[in-house]
Description:
Elements lengths: L1 E3 L3 H11 L8 E3 L3 H11 L2 E3 L2 H5 L6 E4 L6 H10 L3 E5 L6 H13 L4 E4 L6 H11 L6 E9 L27 H16 L4 E9 L10 E8 L4 E7 L9 E5 L2 E5 L10 E7 L2 E7 L9 H12 L7 H20 L3 E2 L4
Helix pairs in contact: 4-5, 5-9, 7-9
Amino acid sequence: MGVLGLGRMGQVHCQLISDCPGLELVAGSSGSAELRRSAADSFAVRTYDSHEELLRDPQIGWIVIATTTNRHREWALKAIRAGKNLVIEKPIALTFGEAEEIIDAAERNDVRVTVYNSRRWDADFQFVRKTLAGESLGEVYRIESRYTDFDPGWGAWGAQGESNPWRLKKAYGGGILSDWGPHLFDQILLLVDSPFRSVHGRLYSKVWSEEVEDHFWSELLFDNGISVLVEASNNHRIPQPRWCIVGSEGTLTVQGGSPSAWNPALIRRSSEGGIEETRHELAHVELSTGYYRDLVKALQAGSPLPVQPLQVLRVMKIIEAVRESSAACSSVSISLA
C-alpha cells in the first residue's frame, strides 16, 4: 500500500497500515520535505515529492488518498487511471456527483474503491448495534446520534495546524457536516433497515468560521416509523449525549463530548419492581484498527469490502439533502435506492 498525502491523517493511515498484519506499507508522497522525512523515519518507507511518482510505483496495488477533501476527486481519478485500488478518506468527495464519477470510473477500469468510514468500529457504535439487534429496548422508534464538543483545535487538526486551519475553509471542503456527517449518517443507515423518506436540516456558522458550518442538525424519517436526529457541533460548551435511543420497553444513552469520553452506556428498563438500570463500560480506543483488519479479511476471502460504494453514495445523498433543506428551510424527500 501507498499513502498519497502525508499530513496528519496520512500519518495516521501509515501507522494503522504498518500495524496491520497482511498489509505492507511501502511508500508515501507529499510536497512537504518535513512530512516526507517524518514518514521515512517513522515507518521506514520510501517517499516521493510528487503524487504522480507514487502512482507510477509498480509495487503498489492500493493507494490511500489522504489529501484535503477538495482534491479527492482529482487524485482518485488519476489513481484509477493508473490501475490502483483505492481507500479514500471520508468524505469520498465534495459532492454526490463527484462521488458517482469516482465510483463509475473505478468500475470501468476494473479497480476497487472504498472509503475510510472508520467509526463503524467504534466501541459505542458496536454496543448500540448489538443492543438494537436484541430486544432489550422493545420497539425502537427514536434514535438520537450526536457529536457535540467545544474543541479549539478542531479547525487546526491538520499538518499545517493554525497556519492553515483547512476545516474552517470552504475551498478545502471544510465544515462539520463534511467532517462528521459521513460517519454519523453511515452508522444510522446500518442501524435502520427501512426505506428512507425525508430529511429536514439546518446549518449554522456561529463561532469558528463564516465560510463553513460549525454546527448542523438533521431530522431523518424512515418508512418504518423510526425518526432519527443526527447532529454535530463544535459549539457545545456542555456536550449532549453521544446516543439517546428510545424504545417501548427501555432507553439507552451513551455519554457525549470528545470521542475519548464516549463511556459509559446506560440502559434503563421498566420492571415489576420499578426501574432497572444497567451500566456498560465501553473500552474505547480512538482511531480503531478495525477498518484495516476487516479490509484484510475481505481481500483474503474474496468477499465484499467492509464499506461498499453504494453505501457511500447513500451517505453522500443525505449530506447533499441536508444542505438543500437548510438552504430552502424545508424538508427534502429523497430516495436511497
